[in-house]
Amino acid sequence: MELLPGVTEGAPLPDGLSWLAGATAEVAADTVHQGGARRPAVPGEYRDRRFEAHPTRRANGEVVWWLVDQTARYAAEEALTAERERTTFLAEASNVLLSSLNAERCMAATARLAAGFFADAAVVVAPASGRRLPVTRAVAGGEASQGLVAADPATVPGLAEALKGFPPVPSRWIDPTSLPDWLVPDGLRTPVGSVVVTPLPGHGVPAGALILLRTETRREFSETEETFARLFAARAGAALSAARLYAEQHSITRTLMRDLLPPRLHRVRGVEFAGGYRPSNAHERVGGDFYDVHPGPTAADPSLVVLGDVCGKGLEAAVLTGKIRNTLQALVPMADDHERVLQLLNGALLNSDNTRFATLVLASVLRSGNQVRLRLTSAGHPAPLIVRNDGRVEEVPTHGSLVGALDQVTARTVEAVLLPGETCLLYTDGITEARGGPLGGELFGDERLKRALAECVGMPGEAVVEHIRMLAAQWLGDGGHDDLAVVAITAPPTTHLTAVDGHTRGRYTA
Q1: How far apart are CA 430 and CA 484, in angstroms?
Q2: Contacts from 177-184 at CB under 8 Å and sequence distance 24+?
Q3: What predicted TM-score, i.e. pTM, was given to this entire model?
Q4: Using a CB cutoff of 8 Å and minimum separation of 24, what contacts does 243-249 make?
Q5: CB-hemisphere CA count at 13 Å for 76?
Q6: The GAF domain covers which part of the protein (predicted)?
């Protein structure tokens, strides 16, 4: 009896073969499969081996069994099924992990997935944040909880090594009773019976560690399960590392963008300044248009206003924009010599590796009594416009060559005076070249801009800017456009309170 050790002829079958004894009685009593009809095989197990028993009943009523050892076949089928389940799990887990670039959500997803597939609970430990460990815990079927724990990873066997990216220690080397309380989730009611600690490998830097916990009511982790847990951990670590890298890059980008964005303008040295900016693409915060106001060192010194347009759009144009703004800020001490400033800026751009050019307009602004004196210089840029108190719109006759393209820059500076309530408008060609209107392809144009500005008589600078931006946006509709930038320089109205009859509420007049 090589197939059935412990079975002797004529003796009762042992308890492990009770399934065969019961099947023998059923075959003996079977009246359906008479006359040599084929009977179905009977499956069963004996001493870790799996059989299919095929019965034959003799004419005298005896039952003879033909046993086929199917242990290898069943093992292969189970292995194939398990491999399919693992492959499906890895595919689904990858989709879940890569669906978010938020590090905390990625840690929570890792803990939930691991707890549901591998164990009764899972814990994700990130590298220390100061003196605390970021820990995410999850029980199978539940939500993940996150927090910072003041704990020494060395108190958990293999955790300190896993956080450094070293290979995991076998689970059989870890005593479950030695786990600290902070590691075991509150929802795990049964004591831990088996533990796996495996690293979460990142992109060159360890992303953390994954700890799997099984209660003592389940079998211990097998070597195959530990190997598969490491495959899952590799994917989870890559996703977590990508999320942290994205967060770091986003933080850097946000910091850099903060310096590239046009500033919020306000009153400086008794002069009202207002600005508006709209990038060419809604998903971009910066572009090639820019403006700045640099106050003079003292109230007796003019402030320098700069509005410009760099060739191109998007981030590359924004990089050159930042360089121009920084260069101009360094040239503020000589701000009243516009031609000198433009020559130095032109030299700086020609000596760099960039192949882009820019147009801009400079305005030196000084409050003098109730008036605001301007010195305006255009370098290849649309001429500024001034709206007078009587509704006239004047184009300042300044002109010049663009910067960053030619060895020498030529420019003409023009002086102008703003009376109380009058505004000088600086703008980029994104306003006048905006295509839209009833037919969708007509330019907004210079004349339409002048008519719009004529409607702003006596308005504060912010209202002027908002009016121009609103009309341009309505003209564009949903169509594409270049970057748009506009700056208003306004001489504040000098006001005093008057009353009609000495008793009624008065009104402000210029």
Answers
A1: 5
A2: 180/151, 180/155, 180/156, 182/135, 182/149, 182/151, 183/123, 183/156, 183/211, 184/121, 184/213
A3: 0.61
A4: 243/100, 243/101, 243/102, 243/103, 243/105, 243/106, 244/103, 244/202, 244/207, 245/203, 246/101, 247/101, 247/102, 247/103
A5: 4
A6: 101-250
Structure-block tokens of residue 88: 């499906």
**By the 8 A CB rule, do 305 and 510 touch?**
no
Residue 241: which residues within 8 A CB-CB, separation 6 or more?
202, 203, 205, 207
Query: By the 8 A CB rule, do 444 and 433 touch?
Result: yes
Structure tokens at 178: 């030695």
Tokens for 213?
Answer: 């916990």
Q: Coil, strand, or helix at residue 36? A: coil
Indicate the residue type of 438: P
* Beta pairing, strands 63-69 & 49-57: antiparallel
pLDDT tens digits, residue range 17-37? 888 888 888 887 776 655 555
Tens digits of residue pLDDT in 224-261:
899 999 999 999 999 999 998 888 888 877 777 777 77
Continuous segment of H or E residues that includes residue 231: helix 223-260
Assigned token pair, 326: 């920084």
Beta-carbon contacts of residue 387 (< 8 Å; ≥ 6 apart): 393, 422, 423, 425, 453, 454, 456, 457, 464
Q: Which residue has the tokens 């509709």?
A: 477
Q: How far is CA 131 from CA 134, 174, 207, in A?
A: 10, 25, 17
Average pLDDT over residues 154-171: 90
Q: Which amino acid is at 35?
A: G
- Report the range of poorest mean pLDDT among 41-55, 75-89, 204-218, 326-340: 75-89
